[in-house]
């Protein structure tokens, strides 16, 4: 999917980074972004400015972030959930695989606290099965293409936000 050039020139620095990152990875392959700029919507769960219900998520800024990202990319964007690795279903050594070959949503995982190892499997650009594994630290983002299965293994205190991205025609 081609994103407008003006999208990379507009918005806050953290949005420009994410738009550029998605322009490279969307509909192609998984990828990890080690951002240069902090996203004000997500922060340390112990930060007094963060909303209590969402841990390290600041609800007003998260709503603004998803709206701006949708505007810049032309995608439908929503904060799907915030999970703590120790309480999330299917996390750990016996983690369950999530996502199915028919899933049409792309995911953007934003690591908020702790570290999580992500394992992904799917069909690569070559049409052959591929796998991808990475360890996310706070502030880092992982792009999971649509139709890729994923699971995570993390410390009990690790926290991450799952942002769903979907084409407007999907």
Question: Describe it for me?
Answer:
- The protein is of the alpha+beta class and 170 residues long.
- It is 19% helix and 33% strand.
- It has 3 helices and 8 strands; from the N terminus they run ααβαβββββββ.
- It has helices at residues 5-9, 13-25, 59-73; strands at 31-33, 75-84, 106-113, 116-123, 129-136, 141-144, 149-154, 159-167.
- It has a 5-stranded antiparallel beta sheet with strand order 1-6-3-8-2, with helices on one face. A 3-stranded antiparallel beta sheet has the order 5-4-7, with no helix packed on it.
- The longest helix has 15 residues, at 59-73.
- Residues 48-54 have low confidence and may be disordered.
Question: What is the percent of helical residues?
Answer: 10-25%
Read across the widest sheet, the strand sequence of neighbours is 1-6-3-8-2
- The radius of gyration is 15 Å
Instruction: Let me know the average pLDDT.
Output: 80
Number of E strands = 8
**What is the structural class?**
alpha+beta
The profile of the biggest β sheet is: 5 strands, antiparallel
Report strand %. Answer: 25-35%
Number of helices: 3
Instruction: Flag low-confidence runs.
Output: 48-54
Principal-axis shape: globular
User: How far is it from the N-terminal to the C-terminal residue, by CA?
Assistant: 13 Å
Order of SSEs? HHEHEEEEEEE
List the topology elements:
Layout: H1 5-9, H2 13-25, E1 31-33, H3 59-73, E2 75-84, E3 106-113, E4 116-123, E5 129-136, E6 141-144, E7 149-154, E8 159-167
What is the structure about, briefly put?
With 170 residues, the chain is an alpha+beta fold.
């Amino acid at each position: 999917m081609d994103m407008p050039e003006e999208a990379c020139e507009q918005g806050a620095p953290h949005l420009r980074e994410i738009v550029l990152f998605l322009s490279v990875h969307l509909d192609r392959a998984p990828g990890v972004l080690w951002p240069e700029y902090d996203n004000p919507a997500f922060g340390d769960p112990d930060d007094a400015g963060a909303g209590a219900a969402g841990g390290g998520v600041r609800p007003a800024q998260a709503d603004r972030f998803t709206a701006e990202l949708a505007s810049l990319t032309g995608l439908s964007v929503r904060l799907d959930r915030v999970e703590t690795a120790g309480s999330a279903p299917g996390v750990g050594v016996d983690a369950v695989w999530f996502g199915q070959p028919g899933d049409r949503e792309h995911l953007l995982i934003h690591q908020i606290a702790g570290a999580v190892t992500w394992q992904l499997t799917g069909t690569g650009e070559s049409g052959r099965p591929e796998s991808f594994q990475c360890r996310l630290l706070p502030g880092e983002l992982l792009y999971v293409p649509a139709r890729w299965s994923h699971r995570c293994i993390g410390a009990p205190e690790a926290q991450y936000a799952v942002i769903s991205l979907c084409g407007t025609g999907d």
